[in-house]
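Bench log, entry 3. Co-assembly request; chain sequences pasted below exactly as received.
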Amino acid sequence: MQGAAAMREIAVIAFAQTDHRRTTDELSEVEMLMPVLHGVLEQTGLKTADIDFTCSGSSDYLAGRAFSFTLALDGVGAWPPISESHVEMDGAWALYEAWTKLLTGDADTALVYSYGKSSPGSVRDVLTRQLDPYYVAPLWPDSVALAALQAQALIDAGDTDEPALAAVAARSRTDASANSHAQVRGSVPQGDYVVRPLRTGDCPPVGDGAAAVILAAGDRARELCERPAWIRGIDHRIEAHGLGVRELTDSPSTRLAAEKAGAFERPVDTAELHAPFTAQEVVLRKALRLGDDVRVNPSGGALAANPVMAAGLIRIGEAAARIHRGESDRALAHATSGPCLQQNLVAVLEGDPR
Amino acid sequence: MSKEPVAVVGIGQTKHVAARRDVSIAGLVREAAQRALDDAELTWADIDAVVIGKAPDFFEGVMMPELYLADALGAVGKPMLRVHTAGSVGGSTALVAANLVAARVHGTVLTLAFEKQSESNAMWGLSLPIPFTQPLLAGAGGFFAPHVRAYMRRTGAPDTVGSLVAYKDRRNALKNPYAHLHEHDITLEKVQASPMLWDPIRYSETCPSSDGACAMVLTDRAGAARAPRPAAWMHGGAMRSEPTLFAGKDCVSPQAGKDCAADVYRQAGIADPRRDIDAVEMYVPFSWYEPMWLENLGFAEEGEGWKLTESGVTELDGDLPVNMSGGVLSTNPIGASGMIRFAEAALQVRGQAGEHQVEGARRVLGHAYGGGSQFFSMWLVGSEPPAS
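Structure output for the full assembly:
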């Protein structure tokens, strides 16, 4: 990143999410999205017309049809016409695009949202369509089976064992007790094997949900938010697609993104990690050098609610909300995409000194 | 807030054809990217980030193909973003990449858009049934034909104008080695005698289905200074969106298109587009959209666009050449079509457009749209760096 010192100050100033649920048959994507859009606007007192730039993240493959994001725009209210863009990625990357737009000075405020409904299909099957279409996808290896390969590699390397993974699950779901939006909360049995060595408790719940945040630059952020969550750095990196050429027990892309985002310059007190599987938290903790003194996933994380395409944006939102509430001074947020942590984004958020 | 000036220093595209059976999707995008790097005389190591775009994932049946394409595009260890804004995506992708440079987040960015339509069926991809939603089973032509009819009724344009556009674009394509359709025996009579598909749109007034990719290397002022060939400089770029369907929408001349153009002209200091802009690559998938967009983009008064077309102003040797490359009517790898417009605009101001070069082109507009005339993205590039 060039000239980071001269960069414009940009903050997350509002965050809202749905209650994440196993099914939302009675709601369209637009209907699911509307309350969170209103939520962030109400928190800031802004109207749609006050927003300079809008960016969203979603996936046609979850919706089961092409151009699925076009109707979501109706929920935003794009009239008069708005400056708007979309990434076919988790909303965390939509936030990244909005952040660059604000950095250019062409916008002072941005609305970022994302959503995903996994309930209409089998998300395990759907995610196989992300794989190399010629050599891998025809074999239909599903997302749990691939995560199990990663977990077994970690166990074989002596980095973890099944009781330790169960403890990650238990801690996440206990923490989720305090999160009214979470889908799975409280004491949940670890359950039977889904794909060895992963049990039900090691896997994320399948569910539907949406999230939205508002970004603002400089003094605009201070006007609209009592304690803005300043984005001190944000970066994302991708790795090779083929699992055979990757070291599954490590996440070099996360480490590099964290380094570029400035995560290692000073310790963080909170980390919201997008680790849909328990074993992935082990990988991420190591890559991010998180000590036991860092509060990891106080929201319950993706093991408590994993609305695909929104779960990464929610990590940024949860980290920012803790800063807004004064529960954190410097937080790290992480989002992932692709099989076995192929692509990773890291953001470092800070509140003003108290 | 000062922005870094953005320069296009490398452009590459594939020879667009109906089916590239000799390459995988990865092979296709690699080919365009390598050509863009060669043009810039850079290597994969010189690229700081990759921004990729394409139209719906259902067109090839691969969900979020950027994951699979990371290796082929030299993105491993780098940031990679995937943009999707329907038909305007090629343009939007270039603008997202340009913002990374303008914001000084990265120095040199590779941007690429593609579609390999032969790997699936685009009509099917657009027609998956949704509960409680009216399906567009007629495809894109069925959606746009009534709006063309509305334009004809509103302006009194004679029904020969559409065939003039198609005849011009297909002749221009003969001068572009990368264009998909090379109809050497094309005549105006053949266009007019072609079957009616969606009245008033005839077969020869529609775009083909293509396999193809387009790539550009975007860089900052320092990068442009090192470039071996002239750079195209970005003078303005914008995106605008409006809802697909609502009572107040003007489907003939959408407000989002007007606003997007106005924003670009403001950034570029264009007072009179007809006078100040030398040529236009616009997104014309059905021939009648040339006169419609001429009005929407401010090159003609409302109701007058067809007169520019009819009088030959938009011919390659006319006063305001439009779609010198042959346009979307001659080449349509959907996700790449917008980026090809942006890249062709840049080729023109670099003086690198070969046989379809417009002499002395200094400021050229690249235009893309998508959805139900819902999403717009445009940029204006010049042969000189922007003033500020």
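The mean pLDDT of chain A is 96. Chain A has eleven helices and twelve strands.
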